[in-house]
């Protein structure tokens, strides 16, 4: 499907989603994200010295009714921006 950006049209290849299951707040759930988001999320959790489930649990607790996968993507994007800004 074409993607329109500032009047330009570009092809945006479909990226497969990877589903992972984990326990959050005592119940099993699964999240589907693109492989690049999983890779960055794994790295960020490791850099912070915490498990992936712990990090996602923090993101889950802070979200305000937004879908979990969307909240995780936004959190990763914000973390990468903080790294770029040197914060």
Structure commentary:
- The chain has 87 residues and is α+β, with helices and mostly antiparallel strands.
- Helix content is 48%, strand content 25%.
- The protein contains 3 helices and 4 strands; from the N terminus they run ββββααα.
- The strands form 2 sheets. It has a two-stranded antiparallel sheet with strand order 1-2.
- Strand 1 and strand 2 (8-11) form a beta hairpin.
- The radius of gyration is 15 Å and the shape is globular.
- The mean pLDDT is 87.
Distance between the termini: 37 Å
Characterize the largest beta sheet: strand count, sense, and whether it forms a barrel.
2 strands, antiparallel
Number of DSSP strands? 4
How many helices? The count is 3
Element-level helix/strand string: EEEEHHH
Strand percentage, roughly? 25-35%
Mean of the pLDDT scores?
87
- pLDDT < 50 runs, ≥5 residues: none
Radius of gyration: 15 Å
- Class of secondary structure makeup: alpha+beta
Outline: globular
Q: Percent helix among the residues?
A: 40-55%
In order across it, which strands form the biggest sheet? 1-2
